Amino acid sequence: MTDIKISDLRKQYKKDSLEDTELPEDPVVLFRKWFEEAIEAEVTEPNAMALATVTGAETPNVRMVLMKGLEDHSISFYTNYESRKAKELAAHPVAACTIWWAELERQIRFSGKVEKLTVAESEDYFRSRPRESQIGAWASNQSTPVASRGDLQSRFKEMEEKFEGKEIPRPDFWGGYKIVFETIEFWQGRPGRLHDRLLYQQSAGNWNRQRLAP
Question: Is the pTM of this model over 0.85?
Fold first, then answer.
């Protein structure tokens, strides 16, 4: 096996730029534009994002989740309300996220306060999920230890049989959250590591924009 020197791994970024004259006042306009371009470019899982929360010890904790909604000034995602991330959000209702699209040499970072979605919003999304995913929500006690993969599969089979021929209701312990934007930063790779970084910050109902050194 060939030895890989990690320090030698590098890439020259040159696909696009972020020009000040082309930037909208509202960052969500650019967020939507970039997201649409990621879909058009057939980026793998364009809505995948790293979600960082704060633990009880006030240390960061991060994992990948899927963004499932982009509203005027918030994004939404869904999870088990008894999971580790949900408990952390209950104690510290703030979060930060990063989306990385290697194919486009782009990154979006954002942060803000977190709120639970309404029961109706969670119900609507749950009904839109594939049946297997609905069963999985019932079968998995997310973030708790399991003795084996077999035990998890047995639990799935049990729920499959329980709901056979029936509409599957949303579990009370499962639903959505939204992150209300307070900051959004756009990063576009550029040659020579002189990347474009544009930070938008919410202040008194307005967005302030500034360019940051890469």
Answer: yes
